[in-house]
Fold each of these.
Amino acid sequence: MVPDVEQIIENIVRGDQDAVQLLLDGYNTQYAECFFFNTEEQERRKHLAAALLCFITSQLQPGVLQVSLHTLRILSRDRRALGPLVTDEALFTLAHLGGIRTGKSEEEDGEEDGEVCRKEALKVLCNVVYNSPQAQERASALRLLQGLWENLKQEICSSEPPGGHFYQLRLLFLLTALRPELRQQLNQERGVSVLTRALERCLAVQWADGYELLSDPSLPPVSKETSQEVIEVLKTLFNIAHTFYRQEPDEEEAALYRRLASVLRHCLLVPCDGEDTREELQGHTVNLLSALPLTCLDVLLSVRLDQTSHQWEGVNMDCVHALLLFMDRRLTRGQKLKEKLTPVLNLLTESSRVHRETRHYLRQKILPPLRDVAIRPEQDVSLRGQLVRLMTHVDTDVKHCAAELLFVLCKENVSRFVKYTGYGNAAGLLAARGLLNGRRGSGDSQYAAQYSSDSDSDTEEYREAKARINLVTGRVEAEQPDPMEGMTEEEKEQEARYLIGMINRLSQ
């Protein structure tokens, strides 16, 4: 039997904690997975939320407080029943129970509600902030970020073992994602430096010289729990870095971002407990790397080589190789390409523009010298073929990012670009850049002058077939019969006049 809301409220008013706990247990079990209710039920839920908010401010047994907060967490999922939860008093109460210093009172709460209750309160607060623009505005006005940030800074800088801050980090991410002014505030509070320190603690990194980290094979793989905390930190750092992406960093900021980039390199390469864990961690790492100033990404390559390193021209390519494998996996899955693939495409494109060794390495892997010219580029099963297929994708952003990467790997040379992709596939990017005539436009690329003069040597197979390659399709086509074979001179003239007439009509 489903507990009656009025019955629960009556027992709350009487202060019968045992009865409330029993009734709420039944209520939570019944509605744990429910999200949609009619208008009458929503009103009852509002009344229950208001009663519970008063109830949890009294002295409750830990089990009663926990089940009450669990009920509020269920109620906070319904956007249309949030009324009582978005008041200043409610936000202060939830923040206080979640262990956040609100500054509302000078008195310290000596009652220990337990870690479970603090997590439940933070879960409710996360739901409320996520679901209510009004709560977002009030949380900003009430300076909840400041109290939360002070808590996190103290814990990050302490000597206690890291971990157990997931919901505090989740709330920090939500506040900075939904309120632009809080990103600015967190940046001014040395957010990049402190959160980088949080990453270092979570991943137990050790520094060598400069911006290089020491690798310790004896450390266990990153666990699912640790990776989730790391991901929340990465997402918050993205909110800060993306806001200031277009600004040129000063010397101090550049040092901060280089230190962060070194830790992100570790995130890309560190072993994880499970393939899904690694994939998720790498995905958020790539997102953040794509938001950092390009001038600060040189630390991804400035790492000493060892016997297991991927290298090109004496430069460590382990990070670039990891990004390449990550891109390949995202291409193979083909899901949510705009969200999941475009960040790594953009990162590889911009890195290839400014780092010669990165471009050479990626070109060797993606655009090796052509040998098989009997198939169309988009039909190739290699990385080149997968990227060429995206050049005609229905999503404009995906199409542009794939074409841009290949164009940069060709050093923005039109003839080389057409050679590897076919004129039909290349036409979209060339038209957008005004290069359909095959010439580079003046000022077409600010990076054009930086490209080295490395040669593009053709294979023997390509040289033999070059004269027979159809530039539109990018492959050797089967010879077609002469359409005028067997026609008399008069018939040829008549066909020519017909074609001229058609051309004239098209030009009118």
Amino acid sequence: MLLVAVNALVGGTLGQERTILPLLAGQVFQLDLYTSALTYILAFGVAKAATNYFAGTFSDRYGRKPVLVTGWLVALPVPFMLIFGPSWGWIVAANVVLGISQGLTWSTTVMMKMDLVGPERRGLAMGLNEAAGYLGVAGTALATGYIASTYGLRPGPFLLGAAFIAVGLGLSVLTVRETRHHAGTEAAAHVPVHSGTHAGLSSREVFTLTSFRDRSLSSVSQAGMVNNLNDGLAWGLFPVLFAAAGLSIERIGVLAAVYPAVWGAGQLITGALSDRIGRKPLIVAGMIVQAAALAMVAVGADFGIWLAAVILLGAGTAMVYPTLLAAIGDVAHPHWRARSVGIYRLWRDGGFAVGALLSGVIADAYGIPAAVGVVAALTAASGILVAVRMRRADHISAG
């Protein structure tokens, strides 16, 4: 539960940007092209994706707690860069730093919970972890929308992020304990789920297995990437779309908060559900639901339709997000599970960068609804690929 609280603070640190930065790009820095405005998500996604990989490797080598504390230390300058940044380049640089911090902190809370709970409740643990993180994102997105409407886009919203970082660092240093030895205990009784997933693999072999060779691991990796591709679109272009339709900052803040709120709260149910019915059905259904929600955003034109769409998008993402992480934990051997999680998160958070670039280019050329429609089609295709390629019974029955 301490790690759940820490990850809520990790999510809050990210949530300080969700409502504000898309508006900051246009209203303060006068960025007209969507591709230019989305550079901060591209920078965040590349930095976080790369750091996820190293977080897994460093956690295996040095332990989980040192990586977690380092992530909080890296985050310290972010709110001040966002508050005082005189140019858009400062905002992009702040998101590089934030991406590094998020890669270290969020990845480590995932690994530590996997270490602690064992295989039978892995979905429940991932649901708790991701629910805490995205409820933190949602609550902060909503709070910063109201703060900005009263006090302006800077500095008020980012002072909340500074407080989260201070508390998260204090908790991680003073109260969090190392969990790596639990993975060693689990490894002694581990029964491989698939052939080729034995203990003695090099980092290169783990990368190729997770990314390409294993049908289940690679299916999960591509689905994670597409999921965050559409989240990058939602983060960067939804507030711009809503503002262009005449919605107030308060209403934009509500829509920006409802999506991760449903996503976060829903994972309290879907994570545990995947322990019972398996990972594959929830992943496939979740990707299809997301695609339908994105299609609603593309054709919608008012607050009511968009509210229904973001609720549906949050529900679909809740079905997928903890389930994908649990599926990685099911297949990966405890000796290299942290590395496999890091590689999955490399692909998944690389989706932020791909989504920002792809949706920005399409939006510049054809408008935001066209960009949303293309991403909806990609999301549906990803779900179909999981249905065809992923093995069916990937929840652990053998300890």
Amino acid sequence: MALVIAGERSGVGKTTVTLALLASLCRRGGQVQSFKVGPDYIDPMFHQYVTGLACRNLDPVLTSEAYVQQCFAKHRQASEYALVEGVMGLFDGVMGSGTDDSQHPFTFASTAHIARLLDLPVVLVIDCSRLSGSVAAIAHGYCSFDPKIKIAGLVLNRVGSDRHLSLLKDALQSLQLPILGVLRRQDNITIPDRHLGLVPTGEISELDAVVERLADLGDTCFDWQSLLPLLDSQNSKLKTQNSKLSTQHSALSKVRIAVARDRAFNFYYQDNLDLLQQLGAELVFWSPLADAELPPNIQGMYFGGGFPEVFAEQLTKNTNVLQAVKTAIIQGMPTIAECGGLMYLCEKIIDFESKTYPMVGIIPTSACMDKRLTLGYRRAVALQDSLLVNAGTNIYGHEFHRSSLRANSHQPLFETYRYDCDENMGFEGWNLPINLHASYIHLHWGASIEIPQRFIQQCQSHRMCYSNVMT
């Protein structure tokens, strides 16, 4: 089996509890495969830093219910333990049309939905900092709301004192619900955050010390005798399925793709990178911040999201790379740029203090930071044939950014809608014929293998055309 760590709402300490469990398990010598519900990039970075294994996102909106089950079954089998961190509150989701949300359709893609899909027990984290007797009403409500969800026990977080804990235990006694962990208010474990959530792992100099403190917390604050049997990944009822890739697609011939990965660009789904490699790509990781030039002999480029606005001054000073990227795209190199990557390809980035930094300049507009957060799942309808999709194709993605473009494309990639209704969100994305896909919308390719296939095929075509020109 595996275990789902859920919260009664956002901000109750799910990530701290999850990281403490992961760190303690790794200290014990176990290999742990972690998963994250939803489209998040940053929490999985912390999981991977602790476990040494890439965390896998479980998101039926970006992929499908079948893919979620397949992904979980495939990756949990190689590890001794498996742990799933939820998203927001246990039942917070969207309206959906899946096969497993008939009782509460508004919980599609929620932590509860994933727990039902995978038939996993849930540990509920409750923020007790302003609670005493009311904790029992909260726990009872969560246990009774959906009978398909098995609440294996509770973690009481931010407990203030022994007296406070005694009141909580007395209130919960009638529910006969196991208390699997008690965490006191922590002042010595702090992970900094900024405008899009936690600061990524690559920017935290004291992270090893934080992980050690999390492991100490995990060692002392949980009922391991009860937890370990629940965390045993080999007890899962899900059977490993053959992947869609291995059964229906063969690898294409090798191409070299430059993947920007450093402190400015680090938002990638590991499944996307895996698919590129399985389809025949050699991924060459490089840094637009630190490297003096593009990697040699590449046939494609991939710029993920991240925080280019935070490192704009350093990016703008690397003029050789800015010019090399622009030249490569002008010469037809197939290029994907998502969110932060889109911003990098603009003429300028304007930061929160209205300072302006020149960027690549292939997209004729500026990316301007502002306080308004654009957030949510999107249904995007392709308006024309592009690097990744044909005109008329519906794809599903996720937006999460605090920047906006000062001008819209005359040939946008998509017309976009909210995922769970028909509200039109306008036109989005920039498309240079054949070779550039630049968009704020993050895509997971797990259930859409035709997207990376198409990208690699375009990279192969570019290599052949470039070779013909050179000869």
Amino acid sequence: MCRHLAYVGPALPLGELVSAPEHSLFRQSWAPRHQRYGTVNADGFGLGWYAPGDPVPARYRRAGPIWADPSFGDLARVVRSTALLAAVRDATAAGADPEAAVAPYADGPWLFSHNGAVAGWPESLAKPAASLEPLALLELESRCDAALVWALVRDRLRRGEGPGDALGGAVRAVAAAAPGSRLNLLLTDGRSIAATTWGDTLFHRPGPAGGRVVASEPYDDEPGWRAVPDRTLLLADAREVTLLPLKEPSA
């Protein structure tokens, strides 16, 4: 499993969301409070954020635990952004890919993260993978399950689907091929956030300076956090949140 978080709203230092709160993503790397599978998220971490005037996000990713990176504190303290996606990773299975397997994945303006695991990986996703063009598979940064799920989402985005349809369609395709998978997905283009709940927790709340936060679990005990029901598609921007039910895949 993993823990992840996305934010859109007024510019903030990255650390105000990722490391400063009492139960921040930083702390969730070793002491998550709502994680249902796994206990330590020490197989890497990553942040993606947007600079003014540039729609293509920057990323900072490492293969080791977030607490072991001495550069992270300075970066989180001084870098400000109006949008970010951050994640701490607990790998589904051992693999040779280091930081290439760490979220966020990126394509154009998009940042993506997968909190969960694909059941029966990799054999279970042979059919969905076969629906992709060979180039889409060759472009994969990593051979882990999250990277293949991202390829399915990215393919839909490139074909013109909106973020909600892209996430919902990919979730149903993977769930049909690999029943029992956990597929909490998170996606942003720097202006809005789309997410799914499929087997694990997700919460949202107004951001500390306005805006919107969507996270695997609350980073503090302040009021305002709202749990998202399982099997739900969340669509949000800085002002509002829409929740839509996700249908089970057809038999």
